[in-house]
Amino acid sequence: MTALTAERARLIVGRFADAPVAILGDVMLDQFVVGRVHRISPEAPVPVLEHDHDEFRAGGAANVAHNVHALGGEVALIGVVGRDRSAERLAEELTRHGLSADGLVEDAARPTTRKMRIVAQRNQQVARVDYEADGEVEPGIEEALADRVVRLASRARVVVVSDYLKGTITPGLMAKVVAIARARGIPLLVDPKIPHIAYYAGSSLITPNHVEAETATHSRIRSNQDAAAAARVFRERASCDAVLITRGEHGMCLLGKGDALHLPTVAREVADVTGAGDTVIGALALALAAGATLPEAAQIANHAAGVVVAKFGPATLSRDELLATFD
Description:
By secondary structure, this protein is an alpha/beta fold. It has helices at 6-14, 61-70, 85-96, 139-152, 171-184, 210-217, 224-238, 276-289, 294-308, 319-324; strands spanning 21-25, 27-40, 47-60, 75-81, 104-106, 114-119, 125-131, 158-162, 188-191, 205-206, 242-246, 252-255, 261-263. α3 links the parallel β4 and β5.
């Protein structure tokens, strides 16, 4: 594999503004309850957090959209929210970052997925509380989502499915998205959850992490050779065209049409891996939409992940931050 030069990276990144991406998936609201811990509760052996402030961020598929937008791309976000204050806060976060909430379908029968993290000094998580209903959406909501995909993905050069196993991605909806992408001749990328692996047949590229790849292939990944073998098995079982396994500190393994390519990590510091997968698939989609080859897009995604893991929580990066990693 030829390493991506700074000049070629600048050319691809320079096209990001003309590379529309559509994202379908489980949108979430990430809440951080931030404070300090100085003592243990006398009622139970748990820390007592002295509350300082709350932070809210767009999470899940909404974080993928935020990443694409932060890199200068045009994005259409499609997902499901409840009829509640969390949906309002999520819409506020999207608007604050220049993103539209028009693609969000309201389902009054379920809450907006919210992950509340209790965070102490030095960004240490004390606990997490999840508010969610993870059953698959009803047929009427599924049809509304499909209509949004048809309408909002009409200009997209790449479609992303961000599956967090919260009910948005159903077999019927996934089949419709595959058909839409094929009819338009554009790539369909999936950030998967293994219980849904059969849903993704016909996808262009799936991006399991290390643990997901091991689970799906009933194997252990301890070397580049192991990763390549797992990628081949995963590709067969998922009936997709290509696989990108993200391996944390060991980088990435890309299996396309030829031999597997192994990309060493470029991260210099790891503070928090939360949301790193969102950055990977967002940068990957945007690079492909901008005309990059798959190996080039994987290298750009690898560099993007190296930046965001040095930040706290679901994070994004700018084009300048990305390009600086190629200098």
